[in-house]
Amino acid sequence: MGDVMLIKEMKEEERPREKLIKYGANTLEDEELLAILLKNGSKGKSAKDLAISILEYLDGIKNLRNLSLNGLESVKGIGRVKKIELLATLEIGKRIYLEHVKEKKKYIDPLFIYKDNRSLLYGLKQEYFYVLYLDTKKNLIERKLLFMGTIDRSLVHPREVFKYAYLSSASSFICMHNHPTGDVMPSRADIELTNTLREIGRIQGIEMLDHIIISDNEYFSFYENHLMENII
Question: Of 76, 96, 197, 212, which has the most beta carbons under 10 Å away?
Answer without folding.
Answer: 212
